[in-house]
Each structure stands twice: as C-alpha cells, then as structure tokens.
Write a structure and sequence with these properties.
Elements (H helix, E strand, L loop, with lengths): L9 H14 L2 E7 L2 E9 L9 E7 L8 E7 L4
Antiparallel strand pairs: 1-2, 2-3, 3-4
C-alpha cells in the first residue's frame, strides 16, 4: 500500500504482479512435490510511479495450465 496500491482496487495489484512475471526472467527454479516453483525478480510498476524491486514466487501445480502466485515481497536495496 506504500506504493499507491489500494485494498479496494486489488485488481490493480494483481495486474501489476502478472505484468511483473511476464517482463522479467525466472531467477530460480525449484522442483517441489507439487510441480516446479519459479522465482522472478525485477521492478514492479506501482501506481505512484515508483518501481520497487520485488521477488515473486509462482507454483506450477501438476495438471494446471497456469502457475499460481505463492508470495511477493520487496527486495532490499543494495
């Protein structure tokens, strides 16, 4: 919410997360008992114009067409 996202407009955040994973490369792949898990790192387009560095984690469950979001969190600045 500190970057201009609003709880009542959660669709904006969801769209930004989907865009994030489409625009950046997978940085790590791990095999789990449920299917592969992917980490993606890069800038997230925020409504207030800032572009924080974020890591998203996605799970491709066996038998599913698209991965699902597990978590997303900001990366620490260097």
């Amino acid at each position: 919410m500190g970057f201009g996202f609003q709880e009542e407009a959660w669709e904006t955040f969801a769209a930004a997360l989907r865009e994030h994973c489409q625009q950046h490369e997978v940085t790590l792949t791990k095999e789990t008992g449920f299917g592969p898990r992917y980490e993606v790192e890069g800038e997230l387009a925020a409504p207030d114009g800032r572009r924080p560095q974020v890591r998203t984690v996605w799970q491709q469950d066996a038998g599913q067409v698209a991965p699902r979001l597990i978590t997303a969190y900001p990366l620490e600045s260097l």
